[in-house]
Each structure stands twice: as C-alpha cells, then as structure tokens.
C-alpha cells in the first residue's frame, strides 16, 4: 500500500512514496442478462450488482497515518485517516452535539465556547476539544452498487432505459463547511438567515462569529450519498430497408438521447456523485465546488451508404 509519507528532513525531502502497510480487498460481482420477450415485441434486461470490502490489515508497526494533523480544523481535504482494521476513504473528525444554548453558558465556557457555537463531544473527558477527540465518523466507500439496463424493441423502434444506483456511502459536504461557518469571510448560504441568535436559539446553524478557531470538521457535514439515477434514455427509429433501397441508402437511423435525467437522493448538495480529489484513493467522497453532472439531450441521424 503506497502512500506519500513524511520522512526526516535530513533526507533532503519532506515526504517520500513508501510502502506503509498491507490491505485486503474482498468483493462480489453478479451479472444477469435476460431475454424477457422474444417475439415481435422484444425486451432484454441487463442487471449488474457488485460490492467490495477493503480493510487495512497492517501498517508495519507504525501509528495510524493521518492525513489531517495540526491543521485539522480548516484544511479541507485533510480529514481522512489510514487506520488498521478500517477501509480506505474513512472520514476522521469530531462528533457533533448540536449548539451551545444560553442555559449552557457556564459549561460552554469550559470549552472556550459561547452560546451559539457548535458543541462537540469530549471523547476523553479532559474539558478540551482538540485533535485527541477525533474518531472515525464515516466511510466514503459504498456498501454496494448496481445498474439496470432495459432495451425494448418493436419493429423499427428501439427504446433503452438505463438506471444506476450507489448505496451506503458517506459524502463530506465541504460546501456546507464553507457556507455555514458564519464567519463572514466568504459567501454564506441563505440558510444562515436562520442562524442562532438569542431571539432565535436554534440547534442547526451557528451564530455569526468572526473567530474561525471554533470551527472543526465534524459529522454534521457528513451526509448519506446514496442515490439512484436515471442515467440514460434513448429512443431510435430505423427506416424500413425497402424505402432505403430506393434511395440508394443501406441504413438510416434517427435517435434522441437524454443523459442524467433524474436523480433520487437525500443528499443536499448539487450532485451525490462527487470526488474533489479524483486521483486519491484516500481522500474519497469530498464535495467542494464540484460542477454537477449536466443533463444532456442529443438528437442524431446515422447514414450508411
């Protein structure tokens, strides 16, 4: 398992690609192709299902290699962990516990917080919220994925309908981390109009606060990334060969296709199919400013002479 790990600066480098450990992948794949109707009206189905379970088994006697460290509070993309017994793509942060309220002001002061600030679970009960209170809060890898393709044909018409599904994965909505901070240093979500105030003591959005030190990565920004998407619908018509031969054409086919037509998901971002760090197997499932999959309509005409 190769990883760009830190090395002593006496080597002349800050990091080097090292074989830091061992991991195991076990999975299952299933494909079923059926011809449901085979007469004048034809219906074929292609179904696929797969799952994979990865687990880091050995880190060569090294401690857990965290991507996040001293800058764990605000450095987006550095909230993952490599840990024995866990899969790659594990999110690492604090466990959120709502927002401090006015009647909790004395307890909040112990943690250098005020009413309206985020509340986090003190995992080691040392009256301080810091990096030692982090734990694995989610996983980017899905429980399973599937696809279903149906092709219907009657005479010279053909209709293809393709669905895709991903289930059981977490997505880190880093856009919310930026837009719901309440620090006034960047654009803000319209949801912040419902932020905490003494007259509006909510338990979701924090008070306006220029001090960014109170912000930490926590499970409040993790969301269920499961989705079902109508990936493709295509309708085509092929002119009868009798008509084509008179015009000296071997084949003529009209078609219209729509892609990314519908997505069914509970994810609140633009698109659950995200990956800010696409080249990294470790930092999976980050959503930060990614452009959503566009809905595309295509009309075509194929000639064969």
Structural commentary:
A hairpin with a 2-residue loop joins strand 11 (144-154) and strand 12 (157-167). The termini are far apart. The protein has 3 helices and 18 strands. Strands 3-4-11-12-15-16-18 form a 7-stranded antiparallel beta sheet, with no helix packed on it. A 4-stranded antiparallel beta sheet has the order 5-6-7-10, with no helix packed on it. The model is unreliable at 68-74 (pLDDT under 50). It is mainly beta and 305 residues long. The protein folds into 2 domains: 24-54 and 140-169 and 225-272 and 284-305, no CATH class; 58-137 and 172-221, no CATH class. The protein has helices spanning 105-110, 174-179, 241-246, and strands at 2-6, 15-19, 22-38, 41-58, 65-66, 80-82, 90-93, 96-99, 118-120, 135-139, 144-154, 157-167, 170-173, 222-224, 227-238, 251-265, 286-287, 296-304.
Jot down its keywords:
305 residues; single chain; mainly beta
The major β-sheet equals: 7 strands, antiparallel
Number of helices: 3
On the 0 to 100 scale, the average pLDDT is 87
Strand arrangement across the biggest beta sheet: 3-4-11-12-15-16-18
The total strand number stands at 18
User: Could you give the distance between the termini?
Assistant: 54 Å
- Point out poorly predicted stretches: 68-74
Range of helix content: under 10%
Radius of gyration, Cα only, in angstroms?
26 Å
Please tell me the total number of domains. Answer: 2
Quaternary: single chain
Principal-axes geometry comes out as elongated
| Strand percent estimate | 35-45%
Q: Give, in order, the helices and strands.
A: EEEEEEEEHEEEEEHEEHEEE
Based on secondary structure, the structural category is mainly beta
């Amino acid at each position: 398992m190769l990883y760009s790990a830190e090395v002593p600066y006496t080597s002349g480098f800050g990091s080097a690609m090292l074989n830091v450990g061992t991991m195991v992948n076990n999975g299952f794949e299933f494909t079923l192709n059926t011809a449901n109707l085979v007469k004048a009206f034809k219906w074929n189905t292609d179904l696929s299902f797969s799952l994979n379970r990865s687990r880091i088994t050995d880190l060569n006697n090294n401690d857990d290699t965290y991507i996040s460290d001293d800058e764990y509070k605000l450095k987006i993309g550095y909230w993952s962990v490599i840990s024995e017994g866990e899969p790659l793509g594990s999110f690492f942060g604090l466990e959120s516990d709502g927002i401090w309220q006015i009647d909790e002001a004395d307890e909040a002061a112990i943690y250098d917080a005020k009413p309206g600030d985020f509340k986090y679970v003190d995992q080691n009960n040392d009256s301080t919220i810091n990096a030692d209170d982090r734990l694995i809060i989610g996983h980017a890898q899905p429980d399973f994925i599937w696809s279903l393709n149906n092709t219907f044909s009657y005479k010279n018409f053909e209709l293809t309908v393709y669905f895709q599904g991903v289930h059981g994965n977490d997505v880190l909505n880093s856009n919310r981390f930026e837009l719901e901070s309440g620090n006034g240093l960047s654009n803000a979500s319209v949801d912040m109009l419902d932020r905490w105030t003494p007259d509006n003591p909510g338990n979701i959005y924090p008070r306006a606060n220029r001090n960014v030190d109170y912000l930490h990565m926590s499970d409040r920004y993790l969301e269920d990334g499961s989705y079902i998407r109508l990936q493709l619908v295509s309708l085509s018509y092929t002119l009868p060969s009798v008509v084509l031969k008179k015009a000296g054409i071997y084949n003529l086919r009209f078609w219209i296709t729509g892609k990314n037509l519908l997505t069914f998901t509970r994810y609140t971002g633009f698109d659950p199919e995200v990956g800010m760090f696409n080249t990294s197997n470790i930092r999976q499932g980050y959503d930060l400013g990614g452009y959503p999959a566009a809905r595309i309509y295509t009309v075509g005409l194929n000639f064969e002479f």
